[in-house]
Amino acid sequence: MSRGRRRLVRGLVILGSLLAFLSVFAIWTERQALNTDDWVDTSGRLIHNQTIREAVGDYLVDQLVDVRKELEEILPGDTKDLAGPAAGGLRQVAGQGAEKALETSTAQGLWEEANRTTHEQLLAVLENKKEAIETEGGDVKLNLGSLLTNLAEQVGIGEDLAEKLPPDAAQVEILKSDQLKTAQDIAIAIKGLALVLSLLTFVVFGAAIYLARSERWVTVLLSGIGLIAAGFAVIVVRHIAGGIVVDQLVKTESVKPAGEAAWSIGTSLMTSIATTVIIVGILFLVAGWLASPTNGARTTRRYLAPALRLHSTYVYAGLAIVVSFYFLSGPTQGLRAFLTTLIVAAMAAFGIHELRKMTEEEYPDATYDDVFGDTKDKVVTAVKDANIPEKVGEQASKLRLPEMRRPGGESDADDPGAEAPTKAMAVSDDDARLERLERLGSLRDKGILTDEEFAAEKARLLGGDRT
Length: 467
Hints:
Radius of gyration: 39 Å
Strand order of the largest sheet: 1-2
Helix content: over 70%
Number of strands: 2
Oligomer: single chain
Distance between the termini: 47 Å
Number of domains: 3
C-alpha cells in the first residue's frame, strides 16, 4: 500500500475501536433503561444483595416510623406524649423484622412487581403516550407501598396502623414532570446511538479491511486488537466511574456501601457487553493469524484445505447455524441486534471465502489422505530417525569379522579381498543417504518442511552426519 492508504487504513481501525468503546455504553443504556425485562432482572438481583436489602429495610422502617402524627391521633389525649417512645419502640421492632421480611419470596416478588410496573410507566411516559402522561402528569414513582404494608403485617402492628399510612409513604420519585421533555429527548437519542454506533463500528472495520488489499491479514489483526482494547477500556472506565458516581449521588456515608453494590449489579450488563466485544476481537485475531504467512498458519490452512474445497457448503451451513443460534438465544431480538448479527455474519462469510481462495491457490489438489497420510508418514519417519543410531550400531557389530591369520602369518587386513565388507557398507550408506534426501525433498514439496529446514537437513546429511 501507499503511505497515504496505509495511514487511512490505520485511522479507520482507530476510529472503529473508538466507536466500539462508545457503542458498549449506548447498548448498555438502551437495554438497562429502555428494556423492562432487563431492568426487572437487574432489580431482582439487587434485592438479593444483603447490603441493598439492609438499605431498603432501613428506608421502609423510616417510612413506617414516620407515623408519629397518626399515632397522636390514635392515642387518647393524655397519652399523646407517649407517641415519641411508641415510635421509637416501633423502629426497634420493625428494624428487627425488616431484614427477615425482605428475605421472603413474597417480599421479593412484590419488589420485582413494583419495579416492573414503574418501568412500564416510565416507558409509557418516555414514548409520549397520552394516557400515561394525563394519568401521572409526567411524574414517575417507584411505589413500595405494598412492601411497606407487608412489613407492617410481618412485625404485627396491625392493619389499623397500616391503613393510616399517608398516600405518599414509600413513594420513590424517579422522574419529575419538569424533566419529561429532556428525558424523552435522551431516550430517542439513546435508541439512535445504540443502533448507529453498533453498525458503524463494523462498517468502519470492514472498510479498513477492504482498503488494506495485500495487507488485509495485518488489518484484521489490528482490528481484533482494537476491539479487545475497547472492551477492556470499558471495564476500566466502569470501575473508575463507579466511585465517582456513588460519591456524587450518595451523600450519606452509611448508605454508600449499598450504592456501591447497586452500581456493581446495575453495570454488570455493561461488563457482559464488553466481554462480548473482547470475544469478537479474539475471533478477529484468529482470522488474521490464519491468513498470515507464518509457518503455523500455512500448516493450519493445509489441514483446512480439503474441507474448504470439498465441503464448502457444509462450512457455510455451519456458520449460518451458529449465527442463528447466537441471535435467537440473545436477550433481545430487536432491529439493532438483528442488523449487527447480520453484518458480523457477512464479514465471517467473506473471511471464509477469502480463506478458501487462499487454500485453493496454495494446495489445489489437497485431499484428506494427503493431509493425514503425510502426518502419519512424518510421525513414522520421526520414530525411525530416533532409532537410526541404535540400528547402525547393531549393523556395524554384525559386519565386524574376527581378524584371521593364514599360515604365512598374514592377516585378513593384508588381503585386498577383505575390503569387500567395507565397500558394501559404503554403498549401503550412500543408498540410505540418497533415500533420505529424496524423502526430504518430498516433505519440502508438500509444504511440511520449509526451504530453510530442507537446506539444513541436506547439509547435515552431506556433511556425513547419518543420524
